[in-house]
């Protein structure tokens, strides 16, 4: 294995990837089940929260070290890592767009209105990056190499097709959610001030919209918290690809 991480550390990372990845996949599967079966009468199946859960089900499976078993599996793991990791942030951006429209622009929530665009955006961009990486031969395919999971080869293509989109999405989402949070706070204060003047129906409608926004934001809060470690590790890999840090690798899983 690597001269920086010991064999024991690599094994700990692998065991943590399998254990925590399995738990994450099961939680995502539960969210999918609840969303599709138990809430079917309340909302359409086809919405960004559902598809984010689908992506979060598959994403941990690409960090379980199956690429160690053979070169073809290493290539598959590398492709899955790029595809699902990038897709997860794209679906988060779709939820941000949906929230922004309802909370900030005061638009009526229509789940199906933007879904075709969301699907093209969130599946098309990862598919295009994966296709280009495969065409250029930039995915790792050596199952005996010194990495815990297979991904994009270090170099300019990793930066161009992963880090640049990731940085753009992180900045846009941060700006969107800051604006959403400020708007929710202002609307909440406004509702308190107008509680005695507004009609019960209009006040109830506004409170319902705010409550929906808060619930939808909860999905994103959990997503950001659980992805903080992996984001930190990815940027450490960008700065020092040949010198992995054990603590960040463990946080990644």
UniProtKB/TrEMBL annotation:
Protein name (Swiss-Prot/TrEMBL): G-protein coupled receptors family 2 profile 2 domain-containing protein
Membrane spanning stretches: 12-36, 48-66, 86-105, 117-139, 159-180
G-protein coupled receptors family 2 profile domain mapped to chain residues: 10-224
SUPFAM superfamilies given in the database record: Family A G protein-coupled receptor-like
UniProt xrefs under InterPro entries: GPCR_2-like_7TM, GPCR_2_secretin-like, GPCR_cAMP
Keywords: Membrane, Transmembrane, Transmembrane helix
The organism of origin for this protein: Compsopogon caeruleus
Top-level taxon: Eukaryota
Taxonomic placement: Eukaryota, Rhodophyta, Compsopogonophyceae, Compsopogonales, Compsopogonaceae
């Amino acid at each position: 294995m690597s001269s920086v991480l010991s064999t024991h550390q690599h094994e700990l990372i692998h065991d943590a990837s399998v254990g925590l990845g399995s738990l994450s996949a099961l939680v995502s599967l539960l969210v999918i089940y609840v969303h599709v079966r138990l809430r079917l009468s309340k909302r359409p199946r086809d919405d960004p929260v559902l598809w984010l859960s689908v992506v979060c089900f598959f994403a941990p499976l690409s960090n379980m070290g199956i690429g160690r078993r053979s070169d073809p599996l290493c290539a598959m793991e590398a492709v899955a890592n790029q595809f699902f990791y990038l897709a997860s942030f794209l679906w988060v951006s779709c939820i941000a767009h949906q929230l922004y429209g309802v909370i900030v622009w005061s638009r009526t929530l229509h789940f199906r209105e933007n879904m075709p665009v969301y699907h093209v955006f969130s599946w098309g961009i990862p598919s295009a990056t994966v296709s280009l990486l495969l065409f250029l031969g930039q995915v790792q395919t050596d199952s005996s190499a010194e990495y815990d999971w297979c991904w994009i080869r270090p170099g300019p293509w990793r930066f161009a097709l992963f880090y640049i989109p990731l940085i753009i999405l992180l900045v846009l989402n941060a700006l969107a959610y800051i604006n959403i949070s400020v708007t929710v706070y202002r609307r909440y204060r406004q509702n308190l001030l107008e509680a005695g003047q507004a009609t019960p129906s209009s006040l109830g409608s506004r409170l319902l919209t705010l409550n929906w926004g808060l619930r939808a934001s909860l999905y994103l809060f959990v997503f950001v918290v659980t992805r903080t470690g992996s984001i930190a590790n990815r940027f450490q890999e960008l700065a020092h690809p040949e010198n992995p840090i054990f603590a960040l690798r463990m946080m990644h899983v």
